[in-house]
# Entry
Amino acid sequence: PPRTLLSRLAVGAQQRLTDEILGELHAWPTWNHAVQGKPECPFTIEPSSATIAPSSPIDFTVRFHAHLPLGHRSMAFACLYAVGVPTSGHCLLPYVRLLELQEARPHAEGVRRGLPLFGGAVSLLQRTDNNASNPENAPLGDVGTCAVTAICLQGSSIGPSVTCLPSAVTLAGDVLPFTIHTKELTLRNSGLAPACFRVRLTSKSEASPMSSALWIVGCHEVGPRPHMPELGPEASDVQLAAEQLAAQWPPLPPEGPDAAGPGAGAVVTVAVEPHEGQIPAGGEV
# Structure
């Protein structure tokens, strides 16, 4: 559309489709199908053309394809044309006559009567034959196109956002000291694009009074799981319990006067696996 119209739309001064706009649509430059959906014209409409039977509806799907840079705003007009319209204009009926035809013509079940688009103002007919430059030689059967209506498409590219529900998960229940406890949480991606996740590990974050009690690790930071040794039937209950405690994984946080680095001073080890990855659209981990 012209820059003056874009300016009026940007400040909200253009609220409706006018006769003047409909009359100028034919002169506006158009985006060819190859660039639709690209940064030059990030909009697509499907189907691009259709034949609509009497008393039959059809749905047009408009999509906006976001491109960088973030915050960039795009605007375009989508025009609906009637093709094969006689250039004589006799097929363009007034609004009142169109309403009368809707009342008189039986409609298919489930199809509601709509607002006649040809009523009132219509754009100038544009001839599509070789005689358009010389109307005097044009035959009576000349046909052209007529702009029926138009919609303004606007879109802005924004950064991705993530919503986690619930925002916090509390694992309730008492736990025994020095004994491993396992909880399983499921992350589900209900969006239309892949989503990455990562658990904040103690080694990757600054220590704070609230998190110092937990040593949060990835499996790669504490080594592989130890194997429980095979004990003979003569092993006592005390020996069996000692071996089970020794085979607990993950290990306890580092302690003692020489303990330093991530996890020093913590009282609980929390190992998360996997601690990072990607969830496909509609998938879970």
